[in-house]
Amino acid sequence: MRKVWDIHGGVHPPESKTQSNHCAIASIELAEELVLPLSQHIGAPSTAVVTVGDRVLKGQLIAEAQGLISAPIHASTSGTVTAIEQRPIAHPSGMTADCIVLKPDGLEEWIEIDACNDYKALEKTEILAKIRGAGISGMGGAGFPAAVKLNPRPNQKITTLILNGTECEPYITADDMLMREHANEIIAGALLLAHLLDNPSEILVGIEDNKPEAIATMQAAAENTAVEIVVFPTKYPSGGEKQLIEIVTGKQVPSGALPASIGIVVQNVGSAFAAWRAVRFGEPLISRVTTVVGESLALQRNIEVPLGTPIQHILQQHGWQQENAARLIIGGPMMGYTVESPLVPVVKTTNCILAPSRQEVPEQPPAQPCIRCGMCAEACPASLLPQQLFWFAQSENYEKLREHDLFDCIECGACSYVCPSNIPLVQYYRASKSEIRIIDADKQKSDRARVRFEARKARIEQAEAEKEAKRVARKIAAEQAKRLADEKKALAGPQGTATTTSSELADKASTAAKPTDVDPATELAKLERALSSAQSRQERATASLTDMQREDPDNTARIESLQARLKQAQLKVNEAEQKLGSFKAAQNSVVATETIIKQKLTSSPLEQLQKSVDTIGKRLTTARQKLAEAEAAGTPTVEALRQGVAKLQQKLDTSERELVEAKAATSTASEVATEVNSDHNKTLSAADIAIEKAKAKAAAQANMSDTEKRAAQLTSLQSRLTKARERLAKAEAENNENIDAFRIGVEKLEVKLAEAKEDVKEKA
Amino acid sequence: MAFIKITSPHAHKPGNTGSVMQTVLLATLPGIAVLTAFFGPGTLVNILLTSLFCLAFEAAFLALRKKRIAFYLKDYSALVTAFLLALALPPYAPWWLIATGSLFAIVIAKQLYGGLGYNPFNPAMVGYIVLLISFPLEMSSWPAASPTLSDGAQLPGIIATLQQVFLGVPIDGYTGATPLDLLKQNQSQLISDLYANTSAFNQGRWAGAGWEWVNLAFLGGGIFLLYKKIFTWHAPIAMLASLGLLAALFYDGGSSTSSGSPLFHWLSGATMLGAFFIVTDPVTSAVSVRGRLIYGALVGALVFIIRVWGNYPDAMAFAVLLMNFAAPFIDYYTKPRTYGHKSGPKSQA
Amino acid sequence: MIELFTEQPIISALIALGGLAAVFGAVLGFAAIKFKVEGDPLVEQIDELLPQTQCGQCGYPGCRPYAQAIVDGDPINKCPPGGHTTIAALANLLDVEAPALDEEHGEESEVKKVAYIREDECIGCTKCIQACPVDAILGAAKQMHTVIVSECTGCDLCVEPCPVDCIDMLPIETGIAGWKWDMPAPAHIIASDKIPHSADASTTKQEDAA
Q: Do the chains contact at C184 and A428, CB–CB below 8 Å?
């Protein structure tokens, strides 16, 4: 006999299992319509691969998995796809979701499936693919795709495989009956899963001691195999994954980690059974054993039912007195959820349909004040303090809730069960958990938005800086050119003299430019000093943090503050580096433009043009000579040579014209420079303008009454319309290709305006 | 047809706050019977009056706070407060004293804080302390237990009791020093002499005539509540253990300055009433198992310290109120280790 | 020495006080240098709490400038996207009363929205791209633009610049994955005392039935 451990807390609700486990697993008539939700498991919903009107065969893939954590769905019987639409599904929200609706033809025509006599001959990846392809997901309630658990990370050696046959929830006997009737296949499934997990040293099946028949058959089936049946006392919630692990191994799964992290994999017995069927016979998961129970039913038992069967159909087959039922529960009375509509279908996780009478599950009396009796804390299997959690949940103190390990709550309901004040504790925890998750998601998103905003700002600033540098350079060049032209006029001498002075002028220009900035060398040095000091600060912070972590690792507060300091220092360093980088970049661009100016000035465009006129002239002369020679000799290349001469003549003409133009341009350069200057002021980013506008709008909207607001909206719409019309007219004039888009925009605005006018009229 | 949408669990353990409180009331009955047997009908009149006043004040304040009166009265918490206050007050206390105590217990200590579950201090003990400090004379006149009455004297009848309570007509020779008073006032006698010479002790067996049986009766009630799982054993046992331990340490074999044996401390004054009916008040005590152990042990220590070195002969109420202050603090440092965590929650750092 | 002190009580008192002042002054001075707080973490903390929509409704060009402005004494109720939650968080951080939202800067929206570009109508003018403060719009000149939904903060700064009015602010769909349990109706906190007495205990039931 293996040693079993006890878990903290737990409760002993009435087991109520005898009314449904007295007869064998039965089957019922096929429903007229099967509804197969695309999301029957944890993870991404699958995508339909059939279309409306398709005929499908039993076991045919109708929706395939999306991504790793997902599962495919197969047709539960042969028939026709009549719709793919939103239908109510078994979910506590009572919402609808995408479902494939199947009309059975009653032929039960199987698709070809491929059986496998010896799975050991297969590659493990092949077996895994078979299990994944069969759409098997955890059948105990949560519905985690089974194949994912069976494929642990390479660094995680699985030492224990546990099959969960606990079934600690009252009323449910589906696993009990499955173990009684299919013990051999479950054991075979266990060995198959063990094979996949590299034969863990222990293969355990955990069963509560209130199922003696199941224990006996399972023990008989497990004889002479590596599988060991572990029997432990009945207590709710022993069947919780973490609780079961503690009971049979004495280990606790670290908070926030998966069982695989301590070398354990847990699978439901139903999942093991389904995996065996999938590998051995190639059968996908298209039906399951479900307990149909509750005093509003004439017949209470377990049935094997095709997935997608509407619950209403099942209940009607069991003599349901609808008027006597107050609620419909999917799952057991402790963790099951109610559904509002009996039309929801059975899915892979539906282990029980509980239709209690009003006397059986009476309405909860209103909650009384918490008297902190502590019964909840005694019952909590996670050793939490439910009364404190309740207190903090009520006051929405999310920080305290986290401190009190709210996220280790498994929502088993033991606390609510024992609460003498009838407080719906679990609902408080569920609501708080989702609230905290939303807050976290928002925080993440806002952090990302901050990063993106800062990055954008930095980018715009850099562009601005570069533009500024270019502008300065252009200005200098223009001034230079102007002065040059003036001097030229004054000298009125030959162009050669101008060339000699231009290099001096360039030097002057660069020196003149410098005083407008701070001396770049000193600025650079300053920034470099800042960077090095920031770096040394960071080093110090790192050093003291490592010291602290080594010497006093428990002092989390101090460590946190040190970490914060380190982070700050890092930020500083980054900032300094950025500043330095952008300064250097700006400097470089200034220097670059300076050299270009210098080059251009030393060989001014006028001179260059003059030179090119000269060379072209020379080439023209030689070409003419060659032409004359050729004509004299009567060579056949005369024609080509003549063309060359003509081309050169043309070139010479353009060059000369350019020269004249350039001379004129130098005089207008100064004007251009001023224009550039004024242009720069217009480069406010569009965002700034939008913000300005939004600000103005918001300010105007303040202190306005409702009608005034509407009037303001009206005017703004009108102005937008006028603007749009102008744009349209302009586009029409230019024959712009986007005319249609503009026109639609105008029309839409007109409609909007009309609506707004209507609205104003109505309200007036 | 739409069915109701309601969160799990759908099953619920039978019983509610009202039934918990009723069980507590039931468990006080043996104590009440023994008190009446030894001290006459004064206790019964106390209970009657505190119940009337407490329920009246509770109802009035619920009405003022626009709450549903019947719904809240049905939790029986006001009645429990009334019973505990009545058992703590000396029998034959004047009616106005009882009214004042009820007023402070229900209105000041409970309703003004938000009603049941929100009061940081035990309401009955607040009422008791207010009276003890304001009316020391009335509060210290305990009747003599029946075995110690001088020859011929009898316990007062119901008429005399009512006259004393409502009209202030004194009952002849009815007060007497309690064993705790005697020990406190003891100057020169060895404990064994004290036991032999005073009627309060020589008529009794272990810790004073009458009182020892009262305490045993409350112990019985407490064991009943433990059996009923109304509370856990941690706080009361820790309290009794620390009280007994300190008493044993300072007993010194029974000299004239001795502070009394552990048995004496366990079975005198309000020890058992306190241990099983007041220390276990869930609202005002610590919540975790470790917290309750600490809470109970410190109450026991304070009881001993105040009894022996303080100004008052008994100390249950003071000890409990002082520890009520400390309960949130104890809670903060005694959070249990959650499943899958290495140590308790973060905030312990 | 001791005699001198006992004989001259005033002088000795002065010496003692002066000495103490010097010692504590030195300690404080040392602490001020040794434990000097780098930068201005308060701005960081405030910026952490702001919703980072960068919408400019507060009148500042982004959330961080507003955080700086709050440190410099600006009221904390100018952020409509954050709404009451943000104001409460800021009030908690700065230990002040939480004021109501200043409606001058806009109203708190009930539902979160994201921008959506009707892509067949987009003419590819890039105006919205320039207006987006978080680079959440993708596209190039003469090419259709689209919004990266996961990055959009719903600031609606892109709606106005669009020349063909093809941007809508659509509420984010929650669907079954985003569904959550509601808190049970508060039954017994003191604040509920103001609610008429019929509402306190019976609401739990009604809520559940609803």
A: yes
